[in-house]
Specification:
It is built from 12 helices and 7 strands. It is of the alpha+beta class. Strands 1, 2, 3, 4, 5, 6 and 7 form a 7-stranded antiparallel sheet that branches. The protein is extended.
Length: 420
């Protein structure tokens, strides 16, 4: 993500410091953002002075990167009790700001507001990329991302965005790193709901659905042969009945063909039912929101791959509701989102949700910004498309202008031949 770096003359406490805030983008369509309550505060290991020609090469003064400052002799490891450590957790930052008389909650809200607004700027692009690679009936929770926001505070405790790491480091170099990052990863897995059992069920359902797709052409041929056999037998039976010859034998043959055909249809139904049975095996008697959430995700994966035969009722192949119209799709997404919210309320751990915001006034502002961002993306996309089309037409026109009369006549003759 591109960022704008701003030089800030003064910082809280004489040293220059930077906060690494871990942010979980749980979904981009719809946008759902969570912020982790703990993080890392990194300090420069040399007393900060405004940049000038004589100190520009002093990296320990201007860079807060841990990989840089740990090489300085002034670096102090955090043992949990050292106040002058070169790396803090947010609990130590909170205690420090409270001791100085600042409102830490206000500072935290301003940093969360900065994060939400930065994500709103790129949400239309993320949504477009997400929809371009996933099916239209996706529930919106197939991807997630942990971002590392590097933020600085000036003397007025105003946050400044320095950069956004789409792949923050999870290296463990100290007990402080272990305590924070282990907690972060554990709570992320719980909130995202990465369950090996769910993944295994989805893979089995996909395998069953693939088997149905492979067998479907053969089953269609059997049904066509069956229909042809029944028609020819019925015609023979009618003519024989009129002549009064061998009616009983043909009647028996007809019954035999019909019996074989029903078995063929039953085989297809059983095969399709097996494809969805795996995804629904744990649904009986279970009304818990967490299990319903996972079952909806599994059913979305398995049912979207199986194509029922037009002569067989859809319920035989896919007993799970799937949206077909825009209204059904919106209702289905709303139901999925409601179950997801109930699950999130019980499994947030060290995370707190910052978008959608619980503050209605702030959420109203965010939605307005999101609409503006979407309109801007749409207009830019359309303008780029128009420019691309104009460029193609201009290139085609130049190529036509360079053609000789004989080439133009040959091109017209070929076009007339194709149109004919």
């Amino acid at each position: 993500m591109p960022v704008v770096k701003v030089e800030v003359s003064d910082y809280v406490k004489v040293e220059k410091k930077k906060q690494c805030i871990y942010t979980l983008v749980l979904s981009c369509d719809p946008l759902r953002v969570f912020i982790f309550q703990e993080g890392l505060v990194r300090f420069c290991t040399e007393k900060y002075c405004p940049p000038k020609a004589s100190n520009l090469e002093v990296a320990f003064m201007h860079l807060t990167n841990y990989a840089v400052n740990k090489k300085n002799d002034n670096f102090v490891a955090n043992t949990g009790e050292e106040e002058q450590a070169s790396k803090w957790c947010f609990a130590q930052l909170r205690a420090h700001l409270v001791d100085l008389g600042y409102d830490y909650n206000k500072v935290w809200d301003s940093m969360a507001d900065l994060i939400v607004k930065s994500l709103i700027c790129i949400q239309p692009i993320l949504r477009n990329n997400y929809r371009s690679v996933l099916p239209p009936d996706n529930d919106g929770f197939s991807c997630f991302e942990i971002l590392g926001y590097d933020v600085m505070l000036d003397t007025e405790l105003k946050p400044w965005l320095i950069e956004v790491n789409h792949s923050p480091s999870f290296n463990i170099d100290s007990p402080l790193d272990l305590a924070i990052k282990e907690h972060l990863i554990t709570d992320t897995i719980e909130l995202v709901r990465i369950d090996p059992k769910i993944i295994s069920r989805m893979r089995r359902a996909e395998k069953k659905a693939a088997t149905v797709r492979l067998l479907e052409p053969m089953q269609k041929r059997k049904l066509l042969n069956l229909e042809g056999g029944i028609s020819s037998t019925a015609g023979s039976f009618s003519s024989s009945s009129a002549g009064g010859e061998k009616g009983g034998g043909l009647g028996s043959g007809e019954k035999g063909l019909i019996s074989m055909g029903s078995g063929c249809i039953d085989d297809k139904e059983n095969c399709s039912n097996n494809a969805s049975a795996t995804a629904n095996s744990n649904n009986n008697g279970n009304n818990d929101d967490e299990n319903n959430l996972s079952n909806n995700n599994n059913n979305a994966s398995s049912s979207s791959t199986a194509t029922p035969h037009p002569n067989v009722p859809p319920s035989k192949f896919n007993p799970i509701f799937k949206p077909r119209t825009p209204e059904e799709y919106e209702a289905w997404r709303s139901e999925i989102l409601a179950k997801r919210e109930r699950y999130e309320s019980k499994h947030c751990g060290g995370y707190s949700r910052i978008y959608p915001s619980l503050d209605l006034e702030k959420q109203k502002l965010y939605e307005e910004l999101l609409r503006s961002s979407s309109d801007l993306f749409t207009s830019n996309f359309l303008s780029k498309a128009r420019r691309a089309i104009d460029a193609i037409e201009e290139k085609k026109k130049k190529k036509d202008d360079q053609m000789t009369e004989a080439q133009k006549a040959e091109k017209a003759r070929q076009k007339a031949y194709r149109d004919r």
